[in-house]
Write a sequence for this structure.
């Protein structure tokens, strides 16, 4: 069963999902400095399983694109991190926190995460 485009737009733009992704990203960023370990940790926390090698490569590529985009536009990174009521951990680098938030949001939006079959 696939998510409908409207379902994806709803969850990707929902303040609760973005804030949840930001909190997850904060936890992951403070737990380890190794990007592969961070990605595996994110996969286990969201999906309850290990990512496949292909999934890990895909999400690491997504992380690089997000990091590059937020480095090119730090204002959008700061804006992205303001969603929700909780304050962000200001000790974390803005661009890295925003990029990891984007990746965590993608994980939270997976059909596997959202549905029980």
């Amino acid at each position: 069963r696939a998510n409908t485009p409207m379902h994806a737009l709803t969850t990707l733009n929902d303040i609760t999902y973005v804030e949840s992704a930001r909190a997850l990203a904060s936890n992951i960023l403070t737990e380890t400095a190794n990007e592969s370990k961070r990605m595996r940790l994110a996969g286990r926390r969201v999906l309850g399983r290990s990512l496949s090698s292909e999934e890990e490569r895909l999400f690491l590529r997504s992380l690089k694109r997000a990091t590059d985009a937020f480095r090119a536009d730090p204002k959008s990174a700061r804006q992205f991190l303001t969603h929700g009521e909780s304050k962000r951990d200001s000790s974390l680098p803005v661009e890295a926190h925003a990029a990891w938030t984007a990746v965590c949001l993608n994980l939270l939006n997976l059909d596997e995460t959202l549905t029980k079959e």
